[in-house]
Structure to design on (340 residues):
């Protein structure tokens, strides 16, 4: 893999501006921090509106010129200069990253997952790190969401959804965590399907696992994260990656959710409000209260006793979804699979 195949000149500028990747350890102590997503969205508008037009054009400019062109305070212009003024260090870090079998793309690059950008729009992460064949992220997929601690009925349902996804030629998208996520991914992989994992913890550590490595090499698994490849797990990171799981999916299935607490509930409610994709919830005897409440909020019921009889999950969802203006776009799975 070659960094230039993934990162354009604009992408390299965006990486320097919006990620701590390649920053020295003492950067924060010296008052230097990358632009957060909301900050970048504002700066991107200013770049597009001025004569520079592109992020790459910021390179080599004096702080005084940037302050004038972008109409930003002098300290912010100086921040831009300092973040961009580490090309050599960033190049070395990129060489090391790609040599380990990982990649990085930004919102300015062609290989950035178009589905994620189209769905989340300004909420799409500026930078994504990943491993595995990036073209797998173009695959139409079903997100499978649920608790780490799951009962026997929920576990069986999650694995069955994974198998049904493969039968419908869909990838399984999940957070890769213990419990529901891995059960659904296992169901897909055992059926010779594709799994896409959105990680909230260390990408670098994950790809060292022998079974993960083999799946990546076999092009049956792709991993991505909006966080630094060495970042450890945190609750905030787990909550933050939820929107990416929904953003990659044509529709989502909530297997088990607590009520008004936890990442599964918060992510599903956010997805329903934002209309990122149709949200289904397991229905039937013994489902958690959170599932029943999600149905009241507009999630579609997926009866557990009907799942084994569904021959094509994508087709079933399409015919059971409530009419919505974007329905044709949401369910054009064949188009999603075509190379962009």
């Amino acid at each position: 893999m070659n960094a230039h195949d993934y990162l354009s000149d604009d992408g390299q500028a965006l990486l320097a501006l919006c990620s701590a990747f390649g920053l020295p350890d003492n950067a924060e102590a010296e008052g230097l921090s990358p632009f957060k997503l909301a900050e970048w969205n504002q700066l991107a508008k200013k770049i597009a509106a001025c004569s520079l037009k592109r992020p790459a054009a910021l390179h080599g400019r004096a702080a005084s010129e940037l302050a004038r062109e972008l109409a930003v305070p002098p300290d912010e212009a100086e921040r831009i200069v300092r973040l961009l003024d580490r090309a050599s260090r960033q190049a070395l870090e990129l060489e090391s990253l790609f040599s380990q079998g990982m990649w990085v793309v930004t919102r300015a690059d062609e290989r950035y997952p178009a589905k994620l950008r189209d769905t989340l729009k300004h909420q799409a992460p500026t930078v994504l790190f990943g491993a595995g064949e990036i073209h797998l992220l173009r695959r139409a997929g079903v997100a499978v969401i649920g608790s780490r601690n799951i009962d026997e009925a929920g576990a069986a349902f999650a694995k069955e959804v994974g198998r049904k996804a493969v039968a419908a030629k869909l990838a399984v998208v999940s957070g890769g965590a213990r419990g529901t996520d891995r059960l659904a991914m296992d169901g897909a992989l055992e059926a010779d399907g594709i799994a896409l994992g959105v990680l909230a913890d260390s990408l670098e550590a994950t790809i060292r696992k022998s079974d993960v490595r083999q799946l990546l090499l076999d092009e049956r698994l792709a991993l991505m994260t909006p966080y630094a490849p060495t970042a450890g797990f945190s609750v905030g990171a787990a909550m933050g990656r939820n929107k990416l799981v929904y953003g990659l999916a044509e529709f989502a299935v909530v297997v088990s959710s607590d009520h008004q607490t936890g990442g599964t509930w918060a992510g599903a409610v956010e997805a329903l409000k934002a209309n990122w994709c149709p949200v289904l919830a397991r229905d039937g005897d013994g489902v958690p209260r959170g599932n029943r409440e999600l149905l009241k909020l507009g999630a579609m019921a997926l009866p557990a006793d009907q799942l084994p009889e569904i021959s094509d999950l994508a087709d079933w969802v399409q015919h059971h979804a409530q009419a919505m203006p974007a329905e044709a776009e949401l369910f054009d799975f064949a188009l999603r699979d075509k190379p962009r």
About this structure: Confidence is low (pLDDT under 50) at residues 323-340. The chain has two domains: 3-100, 114-337.
